[in-house]
Design brief:
By secondary structure, the chain is of the alpha/beta class. The chain has one domain: Response regulator (Rossmann fold), CATH 3.40.50. It contains five helices and five strands; from the N terminus they run E-H-E-H-E-H-E-H-E-H. The chain is globular and about 35 Å long.
């Protein structure tokens, strides 16, 4: 299962990406909307898009709408401080929306299980709040 993780918080995005990889996901990362859209022009497409709304060069809602044009069954998860922007857009099926700050457990609960592997228990203490 491939996740495209899109957020302009470089440090937090890398940290979340590393944790997802440890849990068995294949993770690709983009730090702005234009890079995410460029990635979405190539096959194979990701199975899941996890994106912030406020991004440089193209907002997360635009990235998600393009992703759905290319892959209508894509699972969308927004991780944002601006959930109202997601709710204002028109969606065929409502995306999952997590309001920042989130923990890794919050994100894990919004994702399907990685293939052929159960999810690790969330780390105790030192979570990824604010990622």
């Amino acid at each position: 299962m491939t996740i495209l993780l899109v957020d302009d918080d470089v440090r937090g995005t890398r940290r979340i990406g590393d944790m997802l990889r440890e849990d068995g996901y294949h993770v690709e990362v983009a730090f702005d909307g234009a890079t995410a859209i460029a990635r979405l022009t190539r096959d194979p497409l990701p199975d899941v898009l996890v994106a912030d709304v406020r991004l440089p060069h193209a907002d997360g809602v635009s990235v998600a709408q393009y992703a759905l044009f290319r892959h209508p069954d894509l699972l969308l998860v927004f991780v944002t401080s601006y959930p109202e922007a997601v709710h204002r857009a028109t969606w065929r099926a409502p995306p999952r929306v997590l309001t920042k700050p989130i923990s890794y457990a919050d994100l894990g609960a919004a994702l399907p299980e990685p293939p052929a592997r159960g999810r690790r228990p969330p780390p105790s203490g030192g979570g990824t709040e604010g990622a």
